[in-house]
Write a structure and sequence with these properties.
It contains 12 helices and 15 strands. By secondary structure, it is of the alpha/beta class. The protein folds into 2 domains: about 130 residues, ornithine cyclodeaminase, domain 1; about 180 residues, Rossmann fold, CATH 3.40.50.720. It has an 8-stranded parallel beta sheet with strand order 9-8-7-10-11-14-12-13, sandwiched between helices. Strand 8, helix 5 and strand 9 form a beta-alpha-beta unit. Helix 2 packs across helix 12, helix 3 packs parallel to helix 4 and helix 4 packs across helix 5. The longest helix has 20 residues.
């Protein structure tokens, strides 16, 4: 029995943004048709650290992502997120591949956001603002730049060195984008028409001021626990609906739990993205403020992992393990 091992360098060699956004769109098709089996992800906390265990079954493959989030790892010179994705053949149960879990997470989260931007952001969006320069930062800008014809990226992080590191990578790998390190969130909002929040914040990272938030497209990916929040009350008063990538988020994210509990938005205004993209939404109007909220699910990981596996196999990339 042979398995394929794919690390982050292998991912960089084979990953194609458009193909991965198509894999995410396939995941939404599967979700709407019910052609999958996926329990709620197992979420364990211990001494401030987090273990996520995310299994999912398709007709062709099944797999599990095991991910750890250790917030103090940067002090040790180690990444916050690490883990593995195990991919199996659905007919025999035999393992097909072992993959770098952080790489799967980075690319699939970027692809989820990119698809959200493709369907919700203004077609004329040219400036993206990224709040949070962590492990997701570069990939969010990468996929946003494939979803819209961006010209400029503004980066803000309380740790300016992290913002500068992401900015340098964008300049190196996406040379068509001008990069600016914003000194404040307000400075970023003054220029950006597309705003991505990718932080572990427990208090909103955006100002609670409607005049600064209006007429922009927002993608929020950071809040995946009830106590975590990135978005202020004022934003909910500007939007007609929240598009969510998975209904599990209603139980997991503080950016959904808090506004529903406190009456900032009604549940009727929360729309599953899978239903939205399969319907016939009216053309987006100028001046509209939109919000796409993502918490992620194993179905996304599995469709991306399967896509990467077959492409790597066809190209003879990766390490074969006996």
């Amino acid at each position: 029995m042979r398995m394929l091992y794919l690390n982050s360098k292998h991912f960089a060699q084979v990953a194609d943004c458009d193909e991965l956004m198509s894999a995410i769109e396939r995941a939404y098709d599967l979700e709407q048709s019910g052609s999958y089996a996926m329990p709620h992800r197992i979420h364990l906390e211990h001494q401030g650290n987090t273990l996520l265990y995310m299994p999912c079954f398709l007709n062709s493959v099944f797999g599990t992502k095991v991910l750890s989030l250790f917030p103090d790892n940067p002090k040790r010179g180690l990444p916050v997120i690490s883990g593995l994705v195990l991919l199996h053949d659905a007919e025999t149960g035999l393992p097909l591949a072992i993959m770098d879990g952080a790489a799967v997470t980075a690319y699939r989260t970027g692809a989820v956001s990119g698809l959200g931007i493709r369907y919700t952001a203004k077609s004329e969006s040219r400036v993206v603002g990224l709040i949070g320069a962590g492990a997701q930062g570069f990939y969010q800008v990468l996929f946003a730049s494939r979803a819209r014809e961006l010209e400029k990226a503004l980066i803000f992080d309380h740790d300016r060195a992290k913002a500068e590191a992401v900015g340098k990578r964008i300049e190196l790998e996406l040379p068509h984008l001008k990069v600016k390190i914003a000194g404040t969130v307000e400075e970023l909002l003054a220029e950006a028409d597309l705003v991505i929040t990718a932080t572990p914040a427990i208090k909103p990272v955006l100002p609670d001021q409607s005049e600064l938030l209006r007429n922009k497209s927002y993608v929020s990916i950071g809040s995946y626990k009830p106590e975590m929040r990135e978005l202020p009350e004022a934003l909910y008063k500007l939007i007609d609906q929240i598009l969510i990538d998975t209904e599990h988020g209603l139980e997991e994210s503080g950016d959904l739990i808090t506004p529903l509990r406190d009456g900032w938005i009604s549940k009727e205004k929360i729309v599953p993205f899978g239903k939205y993209i399969k319907g016939s939404p009216a053309a987006r109007k100028d001046g509209e403020t939109t919000l796409f909220k993502s918490v992620g699910m194993a179905l996304f990981d599995l469709t991306v992992a399967e896509s990467i596996y077959h492409k790597a196999l066809n190209q003879g990339l990766g390490t074969q393990l006996d």
